Amino acid sequence: MARALYIHWPFCLKKCPYCDFNSHVRADVDVARWQAALIADMRREAEIAGGEALESIFFGGGTPSLMPPVLVGALLAEAERLWGFAPEIEITLEANPSSVEVGNFAALAMTGVNRISLGIQSLNDDVLQFLGRLHTSTEALHALDIAQANFSRVSIDLIYARPGQTAENWARELSRALALGTGHISLYQLTIEPSTRFETDVRLGHFAPLGDDPAADLYALTQTMTADAGIPAYEISNYARLGEQSRHNLAYWRYQDYCGIGPGAHGRRHNSATERHKKPENWLKCVETYGDGINVARPLSASEQASEAIMMGLRLVEGIDLEMLGQRFGLAAGAMIDFGRLALLRDLALMWQHGSRIGVTPAGMPLLDALLGEIVHADLVAA
Q1: How many domains are there within the chain?
Q2: How far apart, in Å, are the Cα atoms of 137 and each of 97, 122, 165, 383?
Q3: Contact, 6 vs 58, CB < 8 A?
Q4: What is the mean pLDDT of the chain?
Q5: Based on the domain organization, do 130 and 21 belong to the same domain?
Q6: What is the CATH number of the domain that holds 8?
Q7: Exposure string over 300-334, b if 16+ CB within 10 A, otherwise e
Q8: Are residues 189 and 50 in the same domain?
Q9: Residue 1 scores a pLDDT above 60
């Protein structure tokens, strides 16, 4: 049964040039129509994967802090009616530091939202302009103050490994960020994603991405500085004080069941993968016609699930337990992992093994995709 719920709000004020998420700019949004559709989509998921109280809800996007608080409250009330809430449920909402959104923070807290993920992205105004953000560093710090006054848990996002960025530059910015008092911080290296404006800019020679070696150096610096500040890595791009890890994202990385509703939302429940229609108008029409926005609902084989669980779990510092995965999916450890390659990577200090538990070292994390290609059996991935 699903214990986590993801709700996707696809609308933004502006499309950022680096963003490949399912986000769209629309002049008008019929809130009443969207509320009815999201609730219908939610009810269909509860029919299929209800029965246990929710431990986490995550409003992602897009920019969910643009949602009217009354809509957030209605969705939370319906989710509680359908599933029930665990006593210490984590309810996260992604937000940007614009004045419009910050003005909603107190009302959002009243709906039950108890954790905010604030997309600061940089503490430097020139970088914010390069990233296409609509806020300044001063506005970001003001938004953070308001968030910390209204929510018990606050996370901030920053983007680093930007073109031409030096270790000294990043150390100064990261030091400022670590002093802001949040218990969780997400630090993402800038990647040039297909079909984004940045991809076009790079192709036209407007700027060159930071090289792999300098980016790896910045990653190593990040590991050291966050650990020294008492906010160590628990996932490849996420850092937290003890007890402040994102419970919702841990559900993904530990390959637990979750329901996803709203345009483009993915889910994993009852050994099946679900995906909603991506374009907002198509999703809306589907819900109003058929009662849900599902585009794909596909059973997953044991091999597919094991492959996904390994690939997700090795993002975590805690790694994965092969014995537990083998019991869960009915597969021998040797059918999932190439132990010869694992031994080689252990000798290179890129991976570790303690009994049936394996993981990736800090030195190996920047090479995670390559390591997965080395150790996960090809027939498991292709299954």
Answers
A1: 2
A2: 9, 7, 18, 48
A3: yes
A4: 95
A5: yes
A6: 3.20.20.70
A7: beebbbbbebbbbbbbbbebbbbeebbeebebeee
A8: yes
A9: no
Q: Which strands, in side-by-side order, build the sheet including 272-276?
A: 266-269, 272-276, 294-299
Q: Are residues 318 and 194 in the same domain?
A: no
Flag whether the pTM goes above 0.90. Answer: yes
Count of other CB atoms within 10 angstroms of residue 295: 15
Three-state DSSP at 45 gives helix
Give the C-alpha separation, 284 to 292, whole Å. Answer: 9
Q: Which pair of tokens denotes residue 55? A: 């431990």
The confidence score (pLDDT) of residue 102 equals 81
> If you search the block for the tokens 């937000």, which residue do you land on?
95
Residue 381: Cβ-neighbour burial (10 angstroms; 0-12, 13-18, 19+):
middle
Residues 337 and 225 in one domain: no
Say whether both 231 and 326 belong to one domain: no
In a domain, 264, yes or no: no
Q: Are residues 64 and 161 in the same domain?
A: yes
pLDDT per position as a tens digit, 122-174 = 999 999 999 999 999 999 999 999 999 999 999 999 999 999 999 999 999 99
Return the structure tokens found at 68. 């009217």
Contacts of 23-31 with CB under 8 Å at 24 or more apart are 23/61, 23/62, 23/63, 24/62, 24/279, 24/280, 26/280, 31/68, 31/71
Q: Residue 374 is part of a domain; what is its CATH number?
A: 1.10.10
Residues 6 or more apart from 201 whose CB is under 8 A from it?
17, 207
User: Are 144 and 210 contained in the same domain?
Assistant: yes
Once rounded to an integer, what is the mean pLDDT over residues 223-252? 97
Residue 306: both structure tokens together: 């094991």
Domain containing 66 equals 4-253
CB-CB contact of 255 with 313 (8 Å)? yes
Please write the tens of the pLDDT for every residue from 169-194.
Answer: 999 999 999 999 999 999 999 999 99
Cα 38 to Cα 179: distance, rounded to the nearest angstrom: 38
